[in-house]
Amino acid sequence: MATDVEIAQQFTPRPISEISTALNISPEDLNPYGRDIAKVDVNALKKPQGKQGRLILVSATTPTPSGEGKTTTTIGLGQAFTQLNESVCLALREPSLGPCLGMKGGATGGGYSQIMPGDRINLHFTGDFHAITSANNLLSAAIDNHIYQGNILHIDPRQIVWRRVMDMNDRSLRKIVLGLGGKMQGIPREGGFDITAASEVMAMLCLANDAKDLKERLDRTLIGYTYDGEPVVAKQLEITGAMMALLRDALQPNLVQSFEGTPAFVHGGPFANIAHGCNSVIATKMAMHHADWAITEAGFGFDLGAEKFFDIKCRIADLDPDVVVLVTTVRALKMHGGKDKNNLVEEDITAVQRGLENLDKHIESVALFNKHAVVALNRFATDTDDEVGIIRNRCIELGVSFAETRHHAEGGKGAIDLAKMVMSAVDKSKPFIPLYQLDEPVLEKVRLVSRAMYGADDVAFSKQAEKDLKHVEQLGLTHLPICIAKAPSSLSDDPLLHGRPRDFEVTVSSIQINAGAGFLVVLTGNIMRMPGLPKRPAANDVQLLENGVITGVE
To answer: How buried is residue 439: exposed, middle or buried, by Cβ count under 10 Å (0-12/13-18/19+)?
Structure first.
């Protein structure tokens, strides 16, 4: 089969104006970025379009390091709806340069189920990540400048919680010392960088309903404490107006199309292992506003992105999916059944059978939110009929829907069975039930999620986490939802525990207050907010050819 880049070169794009017209978006609300990309004004949401579209959430079982094709499945499913002459629109996250050039590679789908133009979307796109990075670092610069210029607010340099960000994997910047070189270079203090996709500015943009909402979130963002222990927020530095100016265009969702011309809003890109893992509220609502079916996804496994989709995004944005698609693969279940991650190609019936317990847990988790699961088996060429049969039979036993898909090789027609299954399943779900109530103690929220989603016996707070919790209580922020940062490769907080771990505790290492985003980031295990590069990063294979084609980003 041709590579993603070779397939992309076969693509003949429809003018973006045609894509917007199909969604009934007014020309005055369209801001083209060339022929193939456009931004859509947020005000388009205020124009009547009739009834709101039904929302489909795509999630997955616990993935292998290379992923299970959740984004590819989402795109293939959208193309299948298009082939069935249904009104449909995708709502996806923007890729981050860190993983694109690190371990995972690009995030625009694959094969004949890609969003286009893949190279532009994967690399710089419309500059949203640059705008978010710039706004974040403007606030960082303002904090250090304020201290240097006299520190009227009495900010304690030892208690600054706001960190700089960049859209790249760089472990050497996790912890640094700022302001060295003499008194003209600033006040020396400890600091560090997070990756842009894990930043609070990214979360705020993705959860904001409009510019007014985003401004209010920026204003209340906690940046640190005074020498007396009083909180300091961004509004006090009088810098949030300039941050809004930098974010003006980034707030508008990006409109592109799939390989087969299915419309797609691609906007926002928070990680799901260290952030809330969903595309922007504005883009999701835009897709629902302009199509009968809106298909979105949540990052990594159901225990991470989908839990946050329900407990954070759905609460804030008043959303409620009609059905959940749970993507899995034979190779993932083999790994969870004890097979080495580097040896998942050859048939192993026993490993697949043992790995079913991971699928079982995620199906149970979907039901906890009152939703019906449609299991989508993303079939690879090396999968055997016997291996697939085992997974199909388990779904029948559990009373959930099952569809085999071949959208990577066949495009939309390879996911038509899945699309029909989804359409027939939407009435089987009920209004979602959150895992916890907001007025419950923070410890109890963490315990409830850890037990329900991960299968943990209990949780343990480190001394730092206990100290952080006291800050949360003193600031009166215990009512906020929680965003648990956890290893994506395991249901537990230990990345090496595959399958369905049992008899374990989740260890909370610290709690970070994201008052602007409106949630508490609960860090577990050894999770970090700035990834590092692997021994051989994907960047080593990226090339710019003489004809202008970029290879290696796929």
So the answer is: exposed
